[in-house]
Amino acid sequence: VKSAGRQYTLIQTGTTEIIMRAHIRMQVWLSPEMVGHITYLSEDSMHQKFGRRLETREHFGYDFETDFAIESYLRYNGRRFTERFDANSFLYVTKALDYFDLANGYEKLPHAFQNSTDLTYMVLSFTSDWLYPAYHSKELVSALTASDCDVTYLNIQSSWGHDAFLLEVDTMTKLLSQFLTRVSNQTTNT
Amino acid sequence: MMTQLLRPDLQAVANLIQTREKVLDLGCGDGALLNYLQINKNVTARGVELYESGVLACIEKGLSVRQGNLHEGLDDYPDQSFDAVILSHTLPYINDPAGTMCEMLRVGNRAIITFPNFGYWRYRLELLILGRMPNPPELPNPWEAGPRPRPMTLYDFEFLCAREGIPINQIIYLYHGREIQPRWGQNLRASAVIFEVR
């Protein structure tokens, strides 16, 4: 589980700098579940929530016990994660995610949409999400545009990282309802 | 459908669009023009807008809009996928206006470009008499705030089109948003212009 978690997380994190940092930290104290949890947050949201607050001690030390508030938070959530989820489901789901390739069987990504150009699309991403970064969404939007599809796209300003999809509910509800209203009007008009 | 009132300069652009055409508006802002065209001229409307507030307003109006800059907005579209591509008061901010116009004409059959005319007599006098750079209302930010516009005149644009071999189909002269038909001194009398090129 740990190796899968490690692999999964490292694949998702993207930038080499973060991978390097994750490597160094993991050797010291970070479990894969904790790395997994970090990918749901953003630097901003972590800083707002925890800053550099120390948890129980008053001075820095080098015994690698829980130091910062963020560490105890991640430890707690990492433990909760293993209690709430079956390790096997985690393995299979992440593997399936790895195998998913929209362009599979097509020469290029736009060709994947050639039989569905009459549909109306909406793509949303979040500015601070580095688990599903905006440039991936933009790639999708580019492919849809190149296929002459009707696509609406917005990169929603948010500091919550990947968690934004759970927290920016008001914005998403508004956007989705307006979009669905439009689509249903189109359907009734034609 | 109820006819909505449109800002006069946008109305002048709207008059250049025929019923049921396919239109792309680059930098569509809050989508007022596209919304008008969709309701009154039954066009297939697509918008590209950089700012989140604009995109949100467009989606609220039920428009198809993409967030992105001009290059993201143009590069992806297939050749000749629109009847008209509109660029309102954005040209002075573009680094490569000639290249952008070529792209607009690759994507669309014709391009409609609006910009404030720094050759307008009052703008000339402002610099001459007051010694300060004129600030056309179409370009909201003063020189020290926001992206830097490049001041240009009607003649400048005509020269650019001639050099690049872009044929000008028609020019509409605006005086503070209203359409005027001056027989002489267009470069002095128009505070903004609309060019239709193809």
The major beta sheet of chain B can be summarized as: 8 strands, mixed
Mean pLDDT rating of chain A: 77
E-strand count of chain B: 8
| Widest sheet: strand ordering of chain A | 1-2
Unreliable runs of chain A: 6-30
Low-confidence stretches of chain B: none
Residues in helices of chain B, as a percent range:
25-40%
Order of helices and strands of chain A: HHHHHHEHEHH
Helix content of chain A: 55-70%
What is the strand content of chain B? 15-25%
**Molecular shape of chain B:** globular
Total number of helical segments of chain B? 8
Structural class given helices, strands, pairing of chain B?
alpha/beta
Topology pattern of chain B, helix = H, strand = E: HEHEHEHEHEHHEEHE
* Rg over CA atoms of chain A: 20 Å
Largest sheet of chain A: 2 strands, parallel
Cα-to-Cα separation, first versus last residue of chain B: 32 Å
Estimate the global geometry of chain A from the Cα principal axes. Answer: elongated
For the largest interface, the chains and their residue counts are: A-B, 21 and 19 residues
Break the fold down into its secondary structure elements and pairings:
The complex is a heterodimer of chains A (190) and B (198).
Chain A: H1 2-13, H2 16-28, H3 32-38, H4 43-49, H5 69-84, H6 87-99, E1 120-126, H7 134-146, E2 150-156, H8 164-167, H9 169-189
Parallel strand pairs in A: 1-2
Helix pairs in contact in A: 1-3, 3-5
Chain B: H1 8-14, E1 22-26, H2 32-40, E2 44-49, H3 52-60, E3 64-67, H4 70-75, E4 82-88, H5 97-107, E5 108-116, H6 121-130, H7 154-164, E6 168-175, E7 178-180, H8 186-189, E8 192-197
Parallel strand pairs in B: 1-2, 1-4, 2-3, 4-5
Antiparallel strand pairs in B: 5-8, 6-7, 6-8
Explain what you see.
The complex is a heterodimer of chains A (190) and B (198). Chain A is mainly alpha-helical. Helices cover 56% and strands 7% of the residues of chain A. Chain A contains 9 helices and 2 strands, in the order H-H-H-H-H-H-E-H-E-H-H. In chain A, strands 1-2 form a two-stranded parallel sheet. In chain A, strand 1, helix 7 and strand 2 form a beta-alpha-beta unit. In chain A, helix 1 (2-13) packs parallel to helix 3 and helix 3 (32-38) crosses helix 5 (69-84). Mean pLDDT of chain A is 77; it is low at 6-30. Chain B has 198 residues and is an alpha/beta fold. In chain B, 34% of the residues lie in helices and 24% in strands. An 8-stranded mixed β-sheet of chain B has the order 3-2-1-4-5-8-6-7, sandwiched between helices. In chain B, helix 1 (8-14) packs across helix 2. The two termini of chain B are 32 Å apart. Chains A and B meet through helix 7, strand 2 and helix 9 of A and helix 3 and strand 3 of B.
